[in-house]
Amino acid sequence: xxxxxxxxxxxxxxxxxxxxxxxxxxxxxxxxxxxxxxxxxxxxxxxxxxxxxxxxxxxxxxxxxxxxxxxxxxxxxxxxxxxxxxx
Length: 87
What we know:
Layout: E1 2-17, E2 20-33, E3 43-47, E4 53-57, H1 61-65, H2 77-86
Antiparallel strand pairs: 1-2, 3-4
C-alpha cells in the first residue's frame, strides 16, 4: 500500500517495441510505502497489467543520470523527478 501521493506531472511516450509502435500516457506521482520494511529490500518483484513479470530496483537519480547507465523511460522522467526534488 502507498500513502501521501503527490502528483508530479504527465509524460507522453511514443515508442517502438519489437516491430510494433506503442503509445502511453504516464502520470507520475511521488508517494511512500506504508510498510517501511519494503525500503530494506534490494528489489521488488512486480507484474505488468498484461501479466509480464519484472523486478523493480532502487536507483538514485545520480546513478540513473550517469552516461554509462542504460536509458530510463519514459523520456523526461529523470528531469521531472529532479525538478520535484527542488520543490
